[in-house]
């Protein structure tokens, strides 16, 4: 498997929003794996229960509003891993997704 071409530095500054969202990710070699998304941005997400994945590996997840989207592992530390989406999520779709992922209005960033 070839690694993804990753562009991390400028995207790490993107605003991350805390969430509590379990997903089943599709992995090409391992099949379905359970992940827990702890925060998300328009560029990617972080999980806090990473299985034994390596930098550059890719998964497909399903998010509310967005649907199926591919993401690449860009960093790993202990049980956490950061993923970069294959494409940036449009802001209007991101806002709608956050309405589902953060049902408590106090957790949402001001618009």
H-E order: EEEEEEH
- First-residue to last-residue Cα separation: 41 Å
**How does the major sheet shape up?**
6 strands, antiparallel, barrel
| SS strand fraction | 35-45%
Record the strand order, biggest sheet: 1-2-3-6-5-4
- Which descriptor suits the 3D outline? globular
CATH-level-4 superfamily name: predicted glycosyltransferase like domains
CATH architectural category: Beta Barrel
Total strands: 6
Structural class of the helices, strands and pairings?
mainly beta
Please give the domain count: 1
Low-confidence stretches: 5-11
How many helices? 1
The amount of helix comes to under 10%
**What is the CATH class name?**
Mainly Beta
What is the average of the pLDDT values? Answer: 85
What would you report as the Rg, rounded to the nearest angstrom? 13 Å
